[in-house]
Amino acid sequence: MPFLFLALLEGALRLFGYGHDLRLFVEDSQHPGFLVMNQFASQKYFTETANATFGNFEPFRKHKADGTLRIFVLGESTTIGYPYMHNGSFHRWLQYRLTRTFPEKEFEIINLALTAVNSYTVFGFAQELAAYQPDAVLVYTGHNEYYGALGVGSTSSIARSPKLVRFVLRLREYRVMQLIGNVVASLKRTVSGQSPDLRENLMKRMAADQQIPYQSAVYQQGIDQFATNMNDFFQVLSEQNIPVFISNLVSNEKDLKPFVSASGNPARSAQAHYQLAKTNYASGRFKEAKQAYVQAKELDLLRFRAPEAMNQTIQALANRYPHVTLVDTKAYFAQHSPHGILGQETLLEHVHPNLFGYALLSDAFYESLKKRRIITTDGRPELSFAQLRQQMPITDVDSLQGAYEMMILREGWPFNEPMPPEEKRPKTIEEQLAGGLVVKQISWHDAMNQLAAHYANANNPAKTLQVTEALLLEYPHDAGLYTQAGKLAVTLDRNDQAVTYLKKAFQLENSFERAQQLFITLLKQDRPDEALPYLQYASSHNPSGFNLNELQSFVKQLVRIKQQYSKDTTNVDLSNQLAAGYLKFANARAATKYVQKTLRQDRQNPIALKLNQQIQSLKNQ
User: Fold this and answer.
1) What sign has the CA pseudo-torsion 230, 291, 253, 364?
2) What is the distance between the alpha carbons of residues 405 and 506, in angstroms, rounded to a whole number?
């Protein structure tokens, strides 16, 4: 009878819409045929739902298209890109690099990371992933085993046994348990007269045991919890032959003093080791300084930085499973840190990278994906790391938002650093928008649209394109954004980039305008064979009724002549024909290319010289 009652109550609660479906993915109401991360998926892992965090909502096709490379990303606040979020995240750096290196390929890189979670969430999400056909799973996690949701030292800890915690998590999927949990939480607030103070930062709200000594029982429980969850995580995905790439962890060694240091014995004092490290560093004894900095971090009683044992666990587990690859991010950071000691060059505070650090993190994963041949370049030109850093569309608003978020974080516990005084001057549009984002007066989407409009009004197409590319990383299924990016790239004479964006726009949504822009751009680049299908589409879907038959005949002729010329590149008659053909349609750039080819063979060729005069006249008009 009790079970029947519970079953009836469960059915009634579902019927009347009480509680939430806690599945990882749900149908995307904005994009039919797509799935998106469930905004309530995190609530299962937080005892106090007011602390539950939200992640990205990146749509992907319910039915995976042929040729698509689908990658899921799991982890915590570093993984989601805090404090920049959006395109600051390493997966967006990776996404941009992949789409620029492989413009013809379809990528779905779905970030499922959440702030303030740990290996329980990573393992829980992994159990649902296999059904969605991932080609790889990328993981960065391990800093939150003490104070993340269900961490052994957190306010949401419910047990020290992973098996018991997982049992409770399964129960929370039922609406009856959600009802019981809400009633208990309400009673606790009533009895105590207190609710979670949302004015306090999440770090303070989640940290219960703020002094966890090195190698203590609670310290070891955090490591054991991580090892158990991650071992089962790897096992679940390995059984499905899904490649997993897990990064080791980085944290600030040099430029962050210990949060809480034990008093008394200097050998157990984090602060004493930190001072020793600074002395050694100042004296040029960098090896000894590195050791002392790391030991200071190990002895810090407030465990917001993962102990070295977490990286040892990651290494050991990666070695155990053939489908798991260790991504040595720590080595990348050390290579870009003076004397191999991690600090402010790559990190903002205790664990979160700066933009350069996030770029490095993406590079570490990119190279590992190549090494395991998840992606294969086969000699094609790649977007180098240097080019990525230069071209990645991180706007000034994005970087300023990160800086402002960091000021607010460091003003609160446990940093307690005073906010720098506000400058007495008018704020730029970028500063205004970034400030609005930080206090949640404006959405990121609206901020980017306002920024793009500002740059367009200022006649700055380069900056307008940067913002449009930023929006494309957030909304990769928006044909209008691809069209806008393509047109801006044409304006900037970045024709290869323009073709890439216009092709993607046409692929998503065929239209005469996109086909017209494509064949014009491709003909300017002397790519008539690629232009022809778009010209044919435009001819058969021409709303203006303008006759394109002559142009089609011309392009077909160009294709034939180019095919002949490819077999005999010394034939000046063919190069002159190509130049004359392009000149007929006022394509001075392509005509110049073939005139120069003729003149390299015959400097006095009269036809080429005459064509060259016509080109100069056209340019002077």
Assistant:
1) negative
2) 39
Classify residue 281: in a domain, yes or no: no
- According to the model, what pLDDT value does residue 159 have? 75
Which is nearest to 115 in space by CA: 137, 150, 148, 71? 148
- In eight-state DSSP terms, residue 420 is P
Q: Which of 457, 397, 405, 449 is nearest to 428 (CA)?
A: 397
Give the domain range for residue 238.
Answer: 22-260+300-391
* CATH number, domain with residue 206: 3.40.50.1110
Distance CA 262, CA 254 (A): 19
- Please check whether residue 464 lies inside any domain of the structure: no
* 584 in a structural domain: no
The string of pLDDT tens digits covering residues 144-184 is 999 999 999 998 888 788 999 999 999 999 888 888 888 88
Evaluate the CA torsion angle 495, 500, 502, 503 in order and state its sign.
positive
For 454-511, the pLDDT digits (tens) are 999 999 999 999 999 999 999 999 999 999 999 999 999 999 999 999 999 999 999 9
Task: Confirm whether 246 is domain-assigned.
Answer: yes
Query: Is cis: bond before 103, omega within 30 of 0?
Result: no
Which residue in this structure is represented by tokens 């109550």? Answer: 9
Total domains, the chain: 1
Contacts 24+ apart (CB under 8 A), 557-564: 557/581, 558/528, 558/582, 559/528, 559/529, 559/532, 562/528, 562/529
- 224-235 pLDDT, tens digit per residue, is 999 999 999 999
Query: Cα(255)–Cα(412) distance, rounded to whole angstroms?
Result: 18
